[in-house]
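Sugar ABC transporter substrate-binding protein structure dump, as promised
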Amino acid sequence: MSGRRPTIRLLAKHTALRANPAKRKALLAMHAAVLVAAGLVLGACGGGSASNAPQDAAAPLEIWVRKPPGGTAEKTTKQLATAFTAKTGIKANVTALFDDFETKLQQAAAQKHLPDIVINDTAQLGSMLKQGIVREVKQADVPGSDKLTPVSWDAAKGPDGKYYGVPNSAQSFALFIRKDWREKLGLAVPKSWADLDALAVAFTTKDPDGNGKADTYGYDVPGSTKRGYMSWYFTSFLWSGGGDYFTEQNGKFAPAIASAASVASVDWFKAQFCQAKTVAPGAVTMETTQAHPVFESGKAGIYFTGPYNMARFDGNLGKDKYETVPAPPGPSGKSVSLAEGENTYLMAGSKNQAGQNKFAEFAISVEGQTIGMAGDTDGNIVRLPVNSTVTLSSVRKDTRWQVFDEIYKQSGRYTPAVPDWTPFRQTSADTINAIVANCGSDTKAELTKLSQAFQAELAKQGVAA
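structure tokens r here:
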């Protein structure tokens, strides 16, 4: 009887589907979509039709940018596309998408109708490469690529050492400090982690806003586990403390998250929550959208964030009330800032690969970078230029941008070039969040378990040392 059960189950399933045409149609559609998506990925990776599409050097380019539709950044991208068309004669159509961007890109892949160009976060390289929807970029095919800052190319490098995008924009992070609070308390700009902690304690205990209430804190931390926010925020401090996620040699990685320096960095961070109690409440569930108002409403006075918030804080808090300064060196003796930005991705299956190369060339040119920077407005799609010949001060008169530019060039560092960074970011966010949320936690033991999870994921991705 046991040998007949699979047949009986199949007959029952077949009968049920025949009785429900709508369900049968939906199931068939789902299978078809899966097969189409698989076909695109296999074609792009294996040199099939997706990567050998007939070429037309005059074909228009479809450009997708990960920005809110109707916003100022979309307008800037369209200006860039218009200038590109005027220079090359190649038409370019811009589509701005923000919500569910990656899902919509996957849908386009399933329909074998990818855009030619995607301007998207550097952190998405691993995921897009894994799907097989981006093509390799040879620097020799993109004139002007030799003028890009060396560190910016790290953001476009895959785990195999090849490039799968062209850098377009960069950014680093700095401390936003309530200058009015600091000066009222007679304290200097912090030069060490000890100074930084002392400033946080003063902001928490010495009533810097003068309202007579104990309602202010030092650190504003977006420490949610959603999308790995806690890991994203803490990365710069982990590196500055001498810790690391991995050690790397010849493209192979070994976990370093449980090293003595990594444990010490996490313990320092945990102490702000548990001993000093200088972190604004709710940090372990806050994303950046909840963290921004904590700083600008006067609940916390120290926020480690990016230059994109300056325009917002100028309007909601006041430009004269805060300052942007580099984070001080940690126990490693260095101050290291997470580097991020956007790449121009040349998508697989394009009918105009020559046009893709020309667009990338224009985007990194002095003219393209200048358009993308959009002066001192909030419409920029280039936060910091990647072209080393662009003089930042000639485009932006707000000298605070120079702080971020210097941080990026002197101490910017991108996340490790593993095939897919996402699972590492998420598991480390989960672990660090749990450690600081439980003051009785054993940091060494928890990071050791995380190290073991890292080792398993590295092996899964084929890059374990």
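The chain has two domains: 61-171+340-413, 174-338+418-460.
lmk if u need the other ones
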